[in-house]
Amino acid sequence: MLEKVRVDKWLWAVRIFKSRTLSTDTCKESKVKVNGEIVKASYLVVPGDVLTVKKEGFSMTYKVIGLLEKRVSAPEAIVCYEDLTPEEELNKFNAWYVGGLGKSETRDRGTGRPTKKDRREIDRFKE
After folding, report:
1. pLDDT at residue 38 greater than cutoff 70
2. What confidence score (pLDDT) does residue 8 get?
3. Average pLDDT across the chain, whole number
4. What is the mean pLDDT of residues 67-89?
5. Is the pLDDT of residue 100 over 60?
6. pLDDT at residue 105, as a whole number
7. 57 has pLDDT over 70
8. Which domain, by its residues, includes 37?
9. 40 lies in a domain?
10. How far is Cα 15 from Cα 79, in angstroms, rounded to an integer?
């Protein structure tokens, strides 16, 4: 039985992120907190830890119940954490994700690709 697992591996294994790279990058960007403290990807989580993850601009909260090192199916992963995300945050996320608001970004036809400056402004606006 595992006693400790890297936070980036755990987030990937329980399917909070699609890839381990996304999980690691989120940790590097200081968007993952364990028990209220910002942690690196190599931080070891134990059962009982509370993780706060900023994903797509939303703050999601999870409590570690079981440890996984390898990615498993969704039904197996659900039993390894408890979702403590506040109701209003879940409603905002569901409206954005399910309603497709996040995918409705469009540019006027013929304007071309965004410049580097435009890209930075878009990123700042999304945060």
Report:
1. yes
2. 95
3. 88
4. 92
5. no
6. 66
7. yes
8. 5-88+113-126
9. yes
10. 12
Residue 93 within a domain: no
Return the residue matching tokens 């994700």.
Answer: 97
Q: To which residue do tokens 């409206």 refer?
A: 95
Closest CA to 31 of 3, 1, 48, 11: 11
Supply the DSSP string of the chain, one letter for each residue.
--S-EEHHHHHHHTTSSSSHHHHHHHHHTT-EEETTEE--TTPEE-TT-EEEEEETTEEEEEEE-S--SS---HHHHHTTEEE---HHHHHHHHHHHHHTGGG-----TTS-SPPHHHHHHHHHHH-
Nearest to 31 by CA among 41, 19, 21: 41
Domain contains 100:
no
